[in-house]
Specification:
The complex is a heterodimer.
Chain A lengths: L11 H4 L5 H6 L3 H29 L10 H35 L8 H20 L27 H28 L12 H32 L13 H18 L2 H15 L6 H15 L14 H13 L1 H15 L8 H24 L1 H7 L3 H31 L1 E2 L2 H27 L14 H31 L1 E2 L30 H6 L6
Helix pairs in contact in A: 3-4, 3-5, 3-17, 4-6, 4-15, 5-6, 6-7, 7-8, 7-9, 7-10, 9-12, 9-13, 9-15, 10-12, 12-13, 13-15, 13-16, 15-16, 16-17
Chain B lengths: L1 H14 L1 H6 L10 H34 L15 H29 L7 E8 L2 E6 L4 E5 L3 H5 L18 E4 L3 E8 L4 E5 L4 E5 L5 E6 L4 E7 L11 E7 L1 H21 L6 H15 L1 H4 L17 H4 L2 H10 L12 H13 L10 H7 L1
Parallel strand pairs in B: 1-5, 4-10
Antiparallel strand pairs in B: 1-2, 2-3, 5-8, 6-7, 6-9, 9-10
Helix pairs in contact in B: 3-4, 7-11, 11-12
The chains are: A mainly alpha, B alpha+beta.
Chain lengths: 538, 365
């Protein structure tokens, strides 16, 4: 593609952004849209976090103190939905928008108007979802997995609004994914081969294919719910010839790829930050690409390991157990490669590196519990207990969210041209990493000792660990005030930085001005520059 | 060196499974061959993970400690090795295969329900369990115990808070029991950790599981699939008794059920119906319609001043028997209980409905 060099007819990029509020509403600029995504995700993270505080407050001690059980179920449901669809996914799309054009030597995204639309759907979808709290009968209360028939025949009226919101979120994600695929394949600097691409670009490209495959399935399942609820069909109702277990098959056919949608970009981020602060090229670049692709492929064929107790035949149980265990192999390769990148490096421990190292450590713990959960017979005792809750919070909070925070701090100097306050960022890191473990580690013990998940009240033997977990939860929740301050303080008062604030950093984005220009690359980078900035060049 | 060994053995003792079990840190070993298989598998995988963690994290932390700029360490430049990549792809595969073999054996074993001596049918309802002994012709419903219900908002919790029921499931020891699990409304899950039995109860389908319990005792569990408002309040309590005691219990249950059936033929007085009706109401109806009859509108309408309750008895009986929208069908209750609870609803809460006799319910079925 040579369009990047062609003169832009109206010379729009010379003018820079429009002034005022309309800039944000009308913008087609990948950086503006990336920022919108990030701020939206952050707002949703705080809302979802506030719901989690409500959950931990009720679970602080046995007995119902603060709310009715039905409201507790609304909190767990909305917490899950908002964190998955409102916080983690938009944050990664925001990072992709900001970083991908800069990393592949492009001026902007391939489909800028669609980019605007795919963002601006989100606040409406999120608004509709949150508005269900104020409806008669309350918000959805059937868990973020919304198993039928609890979510069809037995659900509150607001469920139809939930279905509409999920459809909108799905549109937005699919458009975002199409845009990223189109950008990576068409807007890449002509001299950049696929195997030259930085890993964040690779992981997002693969994630986009997961999104395109998975989100329509989600749309399908909520549409079937909609017709079951309102138009007399019986997809999930045995009395009409349907099957409630079929709901779970369709849901998890979306749901398992979804899990990797939320973690593959995090792997990419980690593969940027570790080489920078170890001052060594990434170990095993090509095996990282192949491992990511294998994980993506496997993610499509393991869905029923969420359903070992639905009455699955032995052959099914065996197959899904083997396929699930297999995921440990490429995931292991990634962890080994990261450790090998550190090995005999010259490491420093700035905040992004601290977040990334703790990501490798804590995500791997989540991986171990995931391996244990994959053992079908053992899953009998783990299934739907707090062991599962601990597992997926280790991979999503100290996994996905950790990588998002690491990426934010790592690229914030490029986005703003300014440096955040390093000592505050270190304090925030230690505060968060200690409290998050107080919050989630005891939940392993609760689950093994037999506490089911999604219960608003528990018997007395679970009281101690719930108390500890809640205290950790409040401390962890409070740490986000400091994170907000650190980011805002950087934007307003940060010290100006050079174009490459991290000495060991490689990548085309660091060849741009200290504060990246409104349009990234007006002339594509040369082969020599691409090779010099490649992750796997010596 | 000797000190080191003492220290190590003390550490091993500390993390040994017994200590875990006492403090409720680890999975229960349970009282069936299935639960013990699961436990062994769990510990095996756990220790494999520990060993891998020690190796990987050990390397990582050594590197973090030794290869740092502040110590003047110069960065090497290697970044590729196909040999190493192959090595750390192959070794995990071998470890996984060695885990998959015992896991497959355990899975095949626990799925085999052909060797059962007796069958229990478990039907889940929002939010209680119904137990049927098809051969013995016994059937009853098991609800959260009143002592737990009364202390949900209070400070004083009874022993086994939320893990006590009004009618316990009673099973004989050393007998292969097949559980047939199904549901009447949404998906529930019947879980008793000590048996290693956790099975989804799907509406319209029947799943099975089996257990041969080695030890007499009382075992507790809970519903393990989100099933609506009172998901956290539908526990399971099983009394496992000797075979002789089990035979006695069966005889006693059968005569009690015969007595209930007989009493359905007599005419009950209003005060008898009201007394029985109140306890049936508090057990079965109060979760939604509330103890004071005011309900939780708009989802759960009040009983007080209700048109149905103050109207003709036949409509009222029909709704209780067959359900309506979110209201489940209560035909699982016997005629006496139904007559009593319907009478209670029609007379209590300042309502002005007529009383209902067991015979009325019987003819309406």
């Amino acid at each position: 593609m040579t369009t990047a060099t062609a003169t832009i007819p109206h010379g729009v990029h010379h003018h820079g952004p429009e002034k005022g509020l309309m800039r944000w509403i009308k913008t087609t600029n990948h950086k503006d849209i990336g920022s919108l995504y990030m701020w939206f995700a952050f707002a949703m993270l705080l809302i979802g976090g506030a719901l989690a505080m409500g959950i931990r407050a009720e679970l602080l001690q046995p007995g119902m103190q603060l709310m009715e059980p039905q409201f507790f179920n609304q909190l767990t449901t909305m917490h899950g939905l908002i964190m998955v669809f409102g916080a983690i996914m938009p944050a990664f799309v925001g990072l992709g928008n900001w970083l991908i054009p800069m990393m592949i030597g492009a001026p902007d995204m391939a489909l800028p108007r669609m980019n605007n639309w795919s963002f601006w759907i989100l606040p409406f979808a999120g608004g509709i979802l949150l508005s269900t709290f104020f409806m008669e009968g309350g918000a959805p209360a059937f868990g973020w997995t919304f198993y039928a028939p609890l979510s069809t025949t037995f659900a509150p009226d607001s469920t139809d609004f939930f279905i509409f919101a999920v459809h909108l979120l799905g549109f937005s994600s699919i458009m975002g994914a199409i845009n990223i695929i189109a950008t990576v394949l068409n807007m890449r600097a002509p001299e950049m081969k696929l195997m030259d691409m930085p890993l964040f670009v690779w992981t997002w490209l693969i994630t986009s294919f997961l999104l395109i495959g998975a989100m329509p399935v989600l749309a399908g399942v909520v549409t079937m719910m909609l017709t079951d609820r309102n138009f007399g069909t019986a997809f999930f109702d045995a009395t009409g010839g349907g099957d409630p277990v079929m709901f779970q098959h369709i849901f998890w056919f979306f749901g398992h790829p979804e899990v990797y949608i939320m973690i593959l970009p995090a792997f990419g981020i980690t593969s940027h930050i570790i080489p920078t602060f170890a001052r060594k090229p990434l170990f095993g670049y090509s095996s990282m690409v192949y491992a990511t692709a294998s994980i993506a492929f496997l993610s499509y064929i393991v869905w029923a390991h969420h359903m070992f107790l639905t009455g699955m035949p032995v052959a099914g149980g065996l197959y899904f157990m083997y396929a699930t265990m297999l995921i440990a192999v490429p995931t292991g390769v990634k962890v080994f490669n990261w450790v090998a990148t550190m090995w005999r490096g010259s490491m420093t421990f700035e905040a992004p590196m601290l977040w990334t190292l703790s990501f490798v450590f804590l995500f791997t713990i989540g991986g171990f519990s995931g391996l244990m959960l994959g053992i079908a017979p053992a899953d009998i005792q783990y299934h739907d207990t707090y062991f599962v809750v601990a597992h997926f919070h280790y991979v999503l909070v100290t996994g996905a969210l950790w990588a998002i925070i690491a990426a934010t701090l790592y690229w914030l100097p490029k986005w703003t041209g300014k440096m955040y306050n390093e000592s505050l960022a270190k304090i925030h890191f230690w505060w968060a990493v200690i409290s998050v473990n107080i919050l989630f580690f005891p939940q392993h013990f609760l689950g093994l000792a037999g506490m089911p998940r999604r219960i608003p009240d528990y018997s007395l033997q679970f009281a101690d660990f719930n108390l500890i977990s809640s205290i950790g939860g409040f401390a962890f929740g409070a740490s986000f005030f400091l994170l907000t301050y650190i980011v805002v303080d950087c934007i307003r008062n940060g010290k100006p930085v050079s174009a490459r604030p991290w000495k060991g950093a490689k990548g085309l984005e660091w060849t741009l001005d200290a504060k990246a220009p409104y349009h990234s690359f007006n002339t594509p980078p040369s082969r020599a520059l691409i090779e010099a900035e490649s992750q796997h060049s010596a | 060196m000797k000190r080191l060994t003492t220290l190590t053995s003390a550490l091993v003792a500390l993390v040994s499974t017994n200590v875990f079990a006492e403090y409720g840190l680890n999975m229960t070993e349970g009282v069936t061959s299935v639960s013990r298989n699961i436990y062994d598998l769990h510990m095996m995988v756990f220790w494999v993970c520990v060993v891998i963690a020690v190796v990987v994290f050990g390397t990582m932390f050594y590197s973090i400690f030794a290869h740092r700029q502040s110590k003047g360490h110069q960065a090497a430049n290697f970044h590729e090795s196909t040999k190493v990549e192959l090595l750390w792809t192959t070794i995990p595969i071998l470890i996984l295969v060695s885990m998959a073999i015992p896991a497959s054996k355990a899975l095949i074993d626990l799925e085999d329900t052909s060797k059962a001596d007796m069958t229990i049918k478990i039907t889940a309802h929002q939010w209680k369990w119904q137990y049927d002994y098809p051969k013995e012709n016994i059937s009853f419903i098991s609800n959260l115990a009143q002592s737990s219900k009364d202390s949900i908002k209070g400070d004083k919790k009874p022993e086994h808070y939320l893990l006590e029921v009004d009618n316990r499931l009673v099973l004989p020891v050393d007998t292969s029991i097949r559980f047939l699990v199904t549901s009447n409304d949404v998906i529930h899950n019947w879980w008793v950790p000590d048996f290693g039995v956790k099975q989804d109860a799907n509406p319209g389908f029947i799943n099975d599981a089996w257990a041969k319990i080695d030890k007499i005792g009382t075992y507790r569990g809970q519903c393990a699939e989100l099933c609506g408002k009172d998901h956290g309040f539908m526990p399971i309590v099983v009394d496992v008794v000797s075979k002789e005691d089990y035979a006695k219990w069966v005889a006693k249950q059968q005569s009690a059920q015969a007595a209930v059936a007989a009493s359905a033929n007599k005419i009950w007085s209003k005060s008898e119906l009201m007394a029985k009706g109140e306890s049936v109401y508090n057990t079965n109806c109060a979760a939604c319609h509330q103890k004071n009859g005011l309900g939780l509108p708009p989802v759960f309408p009040p009983v007080k001043d209700s048109k149905i309750v103050n109207g003709p008895a036949s409509e009222h009986i029909k709704i209780v028997l067959h359900g309506k929208a979110a209201m489940p069908a209560f035909k699982i209750l016997n005629d006496v209980d139904l007559a009593a609870v319907i009478t209670y609803e029609r007379v209590a809460f300042e309502n002005t409905g007529s009383i209902v006799q067991p015979a009325d319910v019987k003819s309406a079925r």
